[in-house]
Amino acid sequence: MRRILAIALAVLLLGGVIYIVAFRGDGGTGGTATKTVHGVIGSEKSEYFRDPDVVKALKDKGYTVQTETSGSWAMDRLALNKYDFAFPGSSEPAAEIEAAAGVKGAQTAKPFFSPLVVIARANAAKVLADSGLVKMTGKNSGTLLMGPYLKAAGEDRTWQQLPGSAPYAELTGTVFIKTTDPATSNSGALFLAATSNVANDNKVVADEAAIERTAPLMRKLISVQGALEPSTDDPFRAFISGSGEPLILAYESQVAALVQQKQAPGDMVVLYPDTTVNSPHTFVPIKDSARELGTLLATDPKLRALAVKHGFRPQDGVPEFTAATAAHGAYLNPELTGIRQVSAPTVKILTALAERAKG
Prior knowledge:
The protein is globular and about 65 Å long. The N and C termini lie far apart (about 90 Å). It is of the alpha/beta class. The strands form three sheets. A six-stranded mixed β-sheet has the order 2-1-3-11-4-12. A five-stranded mixed β-sheet has the order 6-7-9-5-8, sandwiched between helices. Helix content is about 40%, strand content about 15%.
């Protein structure tokens, strides 16, 4: 009888263990079982997905997210069948990714966006302001006047030719903005979208005639830079470390994240181009396992707050962004006051512009 009772008790105990593993699914910690999804993202979102708070918030919602990075405009050329989702920096390459992955018409989401900015050394910003290429709005912020800037670029103006540059020996050579590769990187492509709009009498480039008209200037903007970076991350880090060029294209999110984390920005001045193309980061689900993740990133209050912490503007989230960055108005323009926002050309047109720009 004792042996029978011992066997029965062992069976009951084993059943309890099986119940705990099967129904709690977390090794006994009481959390939610997660499914692992693997995605390709723009490098500007790496810090967001690495943030332990984001990792936890996603796990609480049932996801473990693994990512690797790529230039947004190169994602459609990847072996997309090995990913559960793609998350480029804007909607334009998203359409190409859908087609390449065979998921055209997928339920995409645009959880957040970030406008382009130009970050400048204080002395460079002062010289540009003295020359009428920049309008300062504060000690560490201003507006880049695209018309005057493109005129100077078209004339191959050097720093030494600009008024007030004499005291700054470090400002040498042709005036240019260091961008990323417009053929593969989202920020570089959208820079061409904005500058070609201004060069095309403030109209979106939409045909071969407009490409021909704007291509020589686009070529000057890109060729003067030499080697092109594949993403915004490395040039931004170089600038913050004190190296790099005096004018660098970046995302506002990179600046907003930096100042919110109370990292010393040094003598950085943030210039908002007066004509810009916003960058709605677009989530493309490739497999069903990630189908709801984009919506979750866009709607979950905790994940939206964490996106703001990393400098992004949630869709319809101006109040959230303004409140979070109120203490850093010296650098940021939360309402994007005085900024003209324009549409990007089609992917075909923008690809052609990038090819002409790179020669």
